[in-house]
Amino acid sequence: MKRIILIAFALIMLIGAKTLVAQDDNENIQSEEKIKPWTDVVKNTSDPASWTWNKNVNTRNAIRGDWDGDGFDEMLYESATKLFSDNDDITPLNLPGDLGVFFLINEGDLDGDGGDEISFMSVNRDWSNLNVIRIWSYNGYRWREIFQTEVHIWDCPNYRPETPEESFTQQWKRKNNYSLSKVVLKKHDGIIDVIGIHPNGRYAIEEIKILDKSASKRKWGMIIQPRDD
After folding, report:
1. 20 or 108: whose pLDDT is higher?
2. pLDDT band per the 50, 70, 90 thresholds, residue 127
3. pTM of the predicted model as reported, rounded to 2 decimal places
4. Cβ-proximal residues to 151 (8 Å cutoff; 6+ apart), any chain
5. Best exposed site among 60, 69, 178, 214 by fewest CB in 10 Å?
6. Residue 5 has pLDDT above 70, yes or no
7. 53-85, pLDDT tens digit by residue?
8. What is the mean pLDDT of residues 22-32?
9. Is residue 134 within 8 Å of residue 141, measured between CB atoms?
């Protein structure tokens, strides 16, 4: 009788153990399914050069202007590392860098060629606190850069300070009515007059330089920036 009871007890324990193991296995499977990343494969046999950009996709920056000087306005959109227009005749502009731009501005017709110019600041990787504002013009079915000037990254209107030093510098400049929301330009006179802020990081002095149509540069003034040391 005792032997029968022991055998029955052993069977019950074995069945219970299998049940627990099965439950553990199910829980492990469920947990693995929860943490398993979703993946997909894009299947497209066409040549990438023939792909078209979906103009209905939302982008961070979009502006309107007459880029080719034909008397009709077009849109200009930022998408990753290029600028596209809703006018397919306007060649896309490949942006410097690979992280897009902080802002995109229609500066109007700066050089009197009948077409509007654009300005933007590329988003560089975090290796320096200096960045570049660029002004480009569309002429002859291609984009060309007509001006660039270095600026501190925290002078960008869309930049959010990430360190106490950057926050202090930004607050000081705002307190002293210093602003670089855009490059100051003299428009519609047929001459490119650009006032740019060129930071000298070593001495913490920002030199204001003027670039005219003859590409000559001269110092126009200085802004002393506070230093921690």
Report:
1. 108
2. low
3. 0.50
4. 121, 130, 131, 132, 133, 180, 196, 197, 198, 199
5. 214
6. no
7. 444 444 557 788 888 888 888 888 766 677 878
8. 46
9. no
Q: What is the pLDDT of residues 190-212, one digit of tens each?
A: 444 444 444 444 333 444 444 44
The answer to whether position 90 is within a domain reads yes
pLDDT confidence bin for 130, thresholds 50/70/90: confident
Q: Is residue 130 part of a domain?
A: yes
CB 145 within 8 A of CB 134: yes
Instruction: Count other Cβ atoms within 10 Å, centred on residue 196.
Output: 23
Q: Return the DSSP state at 173.
A: H
Which helix (H) or strand (E) segment holds residue 15: the answer is helix 2-35
**Domain total in the chain:** 1
Cα torsion angle, 19, 25, 26, 28, sign: positive
- Residue 161 domain boundaries: 58-224
Determine contact, residues 172/156, Cβ cutoff 8 Å.
no
Q: What is d(CA 62, CA 79) in angstroms, rounded to the nearest whole number? A: 10
Interatomic CA distance for residues 98 and 123, integer angstroms: 8
| Any domain includes 14 | no
**Terminal CA-to-CA distance of the chain, rounded, Å?**
92
- Tokens 């000087």 found at: 69
Is 168 inside any structural domain? yes
DSSP assignments along 16-84, one per residue:
HHHHHHHHHHHHHHHHHHHHSPP-------S-GGG----TTS--S-EEEE-SSSSSS-EEEEEETTEEE
CB of 110 within 8 A of CB of 67? no
